[in-house]
Amino acid sequence: MSPPPSGGREAPTEPEPVLVSGFGRASASAAVTTLVRSPDHLDELIARRAASGGRALARGLGRAYGDAAQCAGGLVFDCRGLDQVLELDATRGVVRVEAGCSLRALLAAIVPAGWFLPVTPGTAEVTIGGAIAADVHGKNHHRDGTFSAFVDELVLHTPVGRRTLSPADSPEPFFATVAGMGLTGVISQATLRLAPITTSKMVVETRRGADLDQTMEILERADASHHYSVAWVDGVARGRCFGRSVITLGEHAGIEDLPAHQRTDPLAPARARCLPVPPGLPRLISAPLIHAFNATYFRRAPRRATREVLAYPPYFYPLDALADWNRLYGRRGFLQYQYVVPDERADVVRLVFERLIAAGQHPSLVVLKRFGAAGPAPLSFPRPGWTVAIDLLAGTEDLAATLDRVDELVASAGGRVYFAKDGRLRPELVAAMYPELGRWQAARAELDPDGLFVSDLARRLHLVAPEPRFAPGGRDE
Ligand SMILES: Cc1cc2nc3c(=O)[nH]c(=O)nc-3n(C[C@H](O)[C@H](O)[C@H](O)COP(=O)(O)OP(=O)(O)OC[C@H]3O[C@@H](n4cnc5c(N)ncnc54)[C@H](O)[C@@H]3O)c2cc1C
Predict the structure, then answer these.
(1) 127, 329, 379: residue to mutate for ligand 1 pocket, most atoms within 8 A of CB
(2) What atom of ligand 1 comes closest to residue 184's alpha carbon?
(3) Fewest CB within 10 A of the end CB: N or C in the chain?
(4) Domain boundaries along the sequence of the chain
C-alpha cells in the first residue's frame, strides 16, 4: 500500500461535530456526521462505534421537524449514500430500494413503468428509511393505512448483526423498527409493494369549507367517496369563518380523464419546478403576513367545487415547489404540532384551535386529515379519527406552556402527538399516548442490547433507558 500524503505518521483526526437540526430548525444539537457508502461500510461503522462505547443514529433527509434525527454528542450516519433503486419488477409492482433513496427519486423510476407509492407523505424529500422509521401516512390513511403496510421486507443493521425482517417471519423486530424512529438500528434497504397507475396525473376536486363544521363534514363524507382527502384550514380566521378551509379530494387519473394531447404519453414524468429559498434570511414569516396569506389562499380557491387534472407533484407535494422553505422562519425556526384524536372526541379539534388563538398564537399552516384503522407497530402514530398538523413560529411567548396544556387535552381525549414532528413533548404523557411503549422497548432491547442507537427525541421522552455515560450537551466518550 502506498503511504498516505502525510507520510502516515499522524493519527487520523476525528471529524469535528457540526450542528444537526430537524426541519423546524428550532432545537439543533452537535454531532459528528459520516456518510454511509455501502451496507458493508455501515456494518464497519456500527461495529467501531459499538466498540468505542459511543452513541449513534441514522439520518435520512432531515425532514422530521423536531429532534428525532439528532444525536447530541454522538455519531450520525448520513444514509443518503445508500440511494440506489436496486431492482424493479415492473410486472408485479415490487421494488427493492436502498434506504437512503428519496421518494422523489423512487417515483422518477417507478411512475414511467406504471407504478406509484401506495402511501406518500406531504413531501417527496423523504428517504425510504425515514418513511419506514416514522411509519409515515398520507392523504389516504382512511383507505390504505401507513407506509409500512406495503413493506414486504427490510434489512436492518444492528450491533448484534445484520437481519432481514418481514412482518410474517419476524413480526416483533419488524414492527419495532417500523415507527421505531431509528432506535432499533439502521435500515439499509427495503422491498416495497407498489400501486398500479395508468397515468402520472391526478383528478383533483377542490372546494371550500365555509367553517370548521362544514370542513369536517365534507372530509368525513369523503372517506367513502375519495381515495385521497385533505383540508388546508385557515388557522387564524375568527367568528363565522372559524375553521374555513380549502379541501382537495383526489384520485389517480385514468387515460379517459386526460385531455387528448396528454393521452399519447400518459405516464410522462412530471416536470416539477422548484424555486430555492436562500440561506441566512431573517425571519420573514410574521403574524400580519400569516393572516394575509391565509385570507388570500382561501379567497383564491373556487367558490363552487371544481375538478381539474394535475400532475402528481402539485397535488401530493405542493410545498416542494419552494426548496428550503423552512428558511423563511429565520434562525429561530418553527415547530409543527401534529396530533390525532378519536372520532368521538372530534370536539378537541375546535378546542385546540380556540386555545391557540386565546394564547395569542398565529398558526401559519394547518392541515386536517382523516385516519382509518391503526396498524400493528407499537409506536405507529395513526389511529382512527382526526389528525391536525399546525405550524407555529418557535420561541413566541407562552407557546411552551400552551402546548403543554394542549398535550394534556389530547392525551385525556385518547389521542397522541406524532414523534416525527415533535421537539417539545414532556415524557410524562408518552405512556398514555403510546400504551404499547413497553412492548416496543422489549423488542428494541433484543436488537440493540447496549443502547447504541439513541436520539435527542428518545432521551427527552425517555423512550430508552438513561445512558450513564451521556453528559447532556457534551460528547459521550
Ligand atoms: C413538508 C413536510 C411534509 C410532511 N408530511 C408528512 C405527512 O404527510 N405524513 C407523515 O407521516 N410525515 C410527514 N412529514 C414528516 C416526514 O415524512 C418524516 O419525518 C420522515 O421520517 C422524514 O424522513 P427523512 O428521510 O427526512 O428522515 P429524517 O428526518 O432524517 O429522520 C427521521 C427519523 O427516521 C430515522 N431514520 C432515517 N433514516 C433511517 C434509516 N435508514 N434507518 C433507520 N432509521 C432511519 C431517524 O433516526 C429519525 O428518527 C412531513 C415533513 C415535511 C418536512
Answers:
(1) 127
(2) 43
(3) N
(4) 201-424
Grid coordinates representing 258?
A: 386526460
State the closest ligand 1 atom to the C-alpha of 61, by its place in the atom list counted from 1.
26
Q: Which of 377, 375, 384 is nearest to 439 (CA)?
A: 377
Which H/E stretch holds residue 350? helix 347-358
Q: What does the mean pLDDT of the chain come to?
A: 94
Measured from the CB, is residue 338 less than 6 Å from ligand 1? no
CB-neighbour burial class of residue 312 (10 A; exposed 0-12, middle 13-18, buried 19+): buried
How far apart are alpha carbons 275 and 321 in whole angstroms?
6
Ligand 1 binding pocket includes 58 (Cβ within 6 Å): yes
Residue 21 C-alpha cell reads as 437540526
The two beta strands, 56-59 and 186-193, are: unpaired
CATH of 201-424, one of 3.30.70.2520, 2.40.128.20, 3.40.50.2000, 3.30.479.10: 3.30.70.2520
| Ligand 1 contact via 187 beta carbon (within 6 Å) | yes
79 lines ligand 1 (CB under 6 A): yes
The two most distant CA atoms of the chain are separated, in Å, by 77
Q: What is the DSSP letter of 127?
A: B
pTM assigned to the model: 0.96
Kindly tell me if the per-residue pLDDT of 315 is higher than 60. yes
What pLDDT was estimated at residue 1?
38
Q: Is 222 in the pocket of ligand 1 (CB under 6 A)?
A: no
Whether 183 is in the pocket of ligand 1, judged by its Cβ within 6 Å, is no
319 lines ligand 1 (CB under 6 A): yes
Tens of pLDDT, residues 58-96:
999 999 999 999 999 999 999 999 999 999 999 999 999
Q: Which residues pair with 161 in a beta bridge?
A: 158
Please name the residue whose Cα sits nearest to atom 23 of ligand 1.
130
Inter-helix orientation angle 399-412/347-358, to 10°: 170
Q: If you measure from the C-alpha of residue 137 to the centroid of ligand 1, how many angstroms do you get, rounded to a whole number?
A: 11
